[in-house]
Design brief:
heterodimer; A: 209 residues; mainly alpha; 9 helices; 2% strand; flat; B: 209 residues; alpha+beta; two-stranded antiparallel ribbon
């Protein structure tokens, strides 16, 4: 398959050019729900990365055996297994965080980011490319969650990773850590990313004459 | 196990599905392994959490004085209950666990009661996966407070208006099923353990050993 992207292209695409949140608008549920603070956001990004990378590896390994009409079943089975493992792991070693994330950890199963990567990349390309794709997309997802969580936690609580960054006088904007804050932040950052993308392509078009 | 496809060719179900079956078995084994490895640690985390909320569930009790008992409930299963004492060793109340089916998944609760099991002194949600933003308010203080001071010697009833009777609990808006699951779970747990705990009281085991 000559027209499939290489491992390096997959890796780079995942981070910014095809960022799961800002470019593909996938995984909106955790993006909105667990970005009230950096700690839950990073935990979610880590859990998603674990599931995505391992699911990509397994599916890529067995891609030659997949039957087209049974593939979604195999994808879901694989993803659900890794999600259950990560859920139990959090409950055992990060109990408080596991309680805070609540149903959002099992909900990783239905995160479209993962099934789309498995379908688009892992079921068609080698393990090396699938790993690069999984790592790149995970980094992109982590970056997106962290950017939203940074804005929300700093404005909403005056802290970052629980550490005080704005002065005690900061009148923590409670709305930023509540659901409306998630929509406001995502909307503004998404608009910003879109605006920047268009500005760049306009500049490139002009430079190219 | 064969059948005919549209062209009249024989197709084998096993031939089609062997990969799914094999993966299900492998993943099942992996999950069993994860569960046996992490299970004790998760149980320990839950127990620590239980201990930390005992003083809230039975006001005036001291977590370090708590005595654990394994009692046989009316339905015949062994249940671990927590006997709460004040700092100077006076029996103050009981904390009993309860499980029931919620709207999404199993709900695990702790119920605090006074010594004679006449009043509920507190309720706490150990685990739940109810709908975020609706049913998950069962773990909020506002909902848990609705149970405080309610009678424990007759079944609680969920109502959608302001409670008029002593044993009425106002449902959460938009989460009637979750509210009812919690209430039913509490009713059946108390009912299941009432006799054995009262028998324990009257056997003169009131003072702390």
């Amino acid at each position: 398959m000559q027209d499939q992207p290489t491992a390096l292209e997959r890796f780079i695409n995942g981070i910014l050019p095809e960022n799961p949140v800002y470019r593909q608008l996938l995984g909106m549920c955790p993006t909105l729900a667990v970005t009230g603070g950096m700690k839950p956001a990073i935990t979610m990004a880590g859990a998603t990365a674990f599931v995505l990378i391992l699911a990509n590896i397994i599916i890529s390994l067995i891609r030659g055996l997949l039957k087209p009409h049974l593939r979604i079943l195999v994808f879901t089975l694989t993803i659900a297994t890794f999600v259950t493992i990560v859920d139990r792991f959090l409950a055992a070693y990060l109990y408080e965080m596991s309680k805070e994330l609540g149903p959002y950890v099992p909900l990783i199963i239905v995160n479209c980011l993962i099934i789309s990567r498995v379908e688009i990349c892992a079921s068609k390309q080698s393990v090396r490319v699938a790993v690069a794709d999984g790592v790149g997309m995970s980094l992109g997802f982590a970056l997106a969650l962290a950017s939203i969580a940074t804005v929300r936690e700093i404005l909403g609580s005056g802290t970052w990773f629980g550490l005080q960054v704005l002065g005690e006088g900061w009148p923590a904007w409670g709305i930023m850590v509540l659901p409306p804050g998630a929509f406001l932040t995502l909307g503004l950052l998404l608009g910003g990313a879109e605006w920047y993308g268009q500005w760049r392509s306009r500049r490139r078009a002009r430079a190219g004459g | 196990m064969t059948a005919m496809d549209e062209q009249g060719k024989r197709i084998s179900y096993i031939g089609q599905a062997w990969l799914v079956i094999l993966l299900a078995l492998c993943f099942g084994a992996a999950l069993a392994l994860v569960h046996t490895t992490l299970g004790p640690r998760i149980a320990e985390n839950k127990r620590n959490e239980t201990y930390s909320v005992i003083p809230v569930l039975v006001p005036g009790s001291d977590r370090d004085m708590t005595e654990e008992l394994i009692v046989q409930s009316r339905s015949g299963s062994d249940v671990r209950v927590y006997k709460a004492f004040t700092t100077d060793g006076k029996h103050k109340g009981w904390v009993i666990p309860a499980q029931g089916q919620g709207f999404a998944d199993r709900i695990e609760l702790l119920i605090g009661q006074d010594v004679d099991l006449t009043t509920i002194t507190g309720m706490y949600v150990l685990a739940q996966k109810e709908t975020p933003g609706l049913g998950d308010y069962i773990k909020g203080e506002d909902f848990r407070d609705r149970f405080r001071g309610k009678p424990a010697d007759r079944p609680l009833v969920v109502v959608k208006t302001d409670p008029r009777e002593e044993n009425e609990i106002q449902a959460l808006t938009g989460a009637t099923i979750s509210s009812e699951s919690v209430t039913d779970t509490i009713n059946s747990a108390i009912d299941n353990l009432r006799e054995v705990l009262l028998a324990h009281n009257s056997s003169g085991a009131g003072a702390r050993k």
